[in-house]
Amino acid sequence: MSDPVDGPRGRELWERTDAIIPRGGIYLTRSARFAGRDVLPGFIRSAKGCRIEDADGRSYLDFNCGNGPNILGYCHPEVDAAAAEQAGEMDLSAFFPEMMPLYAEQLLEAVAGFDWTIFTKNGSDSTNLALRTMRSSTHRPYVILFRDSYHGFGAEIALHPETPVTGEQRHVVRVPWNDAGALERAVEELGDRLAGIMVSPLDQNPSQETREASAEIVAAIHAARERTGCRVALDDVRAGFRMHPKGSHVAMGLEPDLICLGKPLANGYSVSAVLGRNELREGAERIAFTATYMFSAVAFRAGIKTLEIYERDNVFEHMVRMGKRLGEGIVAAGRAHGHEDVVMSGPPTMPTFLFRDDVKAKRARVFGGHAARLGAIFHPRLNWFLSLAHQPDDIEEAIDIAGRAFALTPLTPP
Question: pTM here?
Fold first, then answer.
């Protein structure tokens, strides 16, 4: 792979960025560095539909979708037109925009089983607010999370805190994924000190097969609530509207008290939300929670239009069809070139690609680098995303590129 993915402009931007923005863990998973040095392009100039153009003008068929938000595809014309019309009237003011209750009503109609919503800006805002709401509603301190589950950048629930665990961080207990026995033991130990349990619909960590929440862990979560009176929050920031059109909890068989939404809500415009049941309304009302940019009329208007298109165009069914064909084609293309260990796991709308027993994703990175040079973004460590913009011809093109990239990828680690 002597031909670098980044051209002269891209390499210049890396140098300028490294000089003025701290690297390392900062922005890591949003950086091309997370894929490995010179595997994916680092800087993007433009994006439309399911294609992006890097800083040097090279075009790629993209399966990142902005790391999830662009569920309709980049720059969807109807969403952008609605946002532009709203921007011509107002975005932020000292008071609430009239779009806010309209969007809240539509969101509550779209997602099954909730009574109120609070808008936030990022998914991390939503998960932290959900933890506070469970505590406020129960007057208890402890929250159970699952090991290696990412719930945002809040210091209390960070996966790798930069300082020793102190203060409120001691009130977070993590148990292994899908280990009902460990959850039951933690619930037994915490008893009436347990405010709530937060769970994601998927264990979808880098460079590993995706695992869904088991029926046994869902049953154990319900039993914990029945036994202790704790509350249950679903972190659906990443998977929302990609596992079920009414929310991932429907696919899981989970009945949460709170649901955190984020990435897919407004097709790239920044809005997230917490939805809750009436039993937690009073607890939520006790929380002081506000921020300057949470009340963007433009984002709310984009969110309204995104939900309209999602339902009108049967986006969920489309993503499932495209994702199934992509997964089947990728596996077949790999095997056609001797790669019998290609694995596609997780929902077809947000699948994970890997080679089995690929230590440190070495082969996946080689494959991803070759695919990028051939014109497709297949992230070698993170899951992929499908969108409405991915059409059958795009999927067939992607499968063809994958086949050519497999032909260039060694059958054993480099």
Answer: 0.95
